[in-house]
């Protein structure tokens, strides 16, 4: 079974204005339900990580890449 990899990140755990981790989670789950419900849902989160930190230096970002298989979907909020 293919996987839907949902990745979310914020610079500050108190980030608001529609971009909080909860808001991103809701958006990603809505996309999964509407378009990819036949994929296994896998979530990854890097709280309090600057966007300037390269993908592979983020804990969850690195883990996501090790889990990828042909036919999987990555969604980033």
Could you characterize what this model shows?
It is a single chain. This protein has helices at 21-35, 59-67, and strands spanning 3-9, 40-46, 73-76. With 77 residues, the chain is of the alpha/beta class. It is flat and about 35 Å long. The model has no long low-confidence stretch (mean pLDDT 91).
Layout of secondary structure:
Blueprint: E1 3-9, H1 21-35, E2 40-46, H2 59-67, E3 73-76
Please tally the β strands and state the result.
3
- Elements, N to C (H/E): EHEHE
Strand order across the largest sheet: 2-1-3
Q: Describe the global form.
A: flat
| Helical content (DSSP H or I, runs of 4+) | 25-40%
% residues in beta strands? 15-25%
Measured between the Cα atoms of the first and last residue, the distance is 23 Å
Decide which structural class fits the backbone: alpha/beta
Radius of gyration based on Cα positions? 13 Å
Mean pLDDT over all positions: 91
How many helices does DSSP assign? 2
Major sheet: size, sense and barrel closure? 3 strands, parallel
> Which ranges are low-confidence, i.e. pLDDT below 50, for 5 or more consecutive residues?
none
């Amino acid at each position: 079974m293919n996987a839907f990899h949902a990745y979310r990140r914020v610079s500050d755990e108190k980030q608001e204005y529609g971009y909080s981790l909860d808001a991103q989670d809701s958006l990603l789950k809505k996309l999964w339900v509407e378009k990819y419900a036949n994929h296994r849902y896998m979530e990854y989160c890097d709280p309090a990580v600057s966007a300037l930190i390269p993908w592979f230096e983020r804990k969850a970002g690195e883990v996501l890449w090790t889990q990828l298989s042909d036919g999987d979907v990555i969604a980033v909020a």
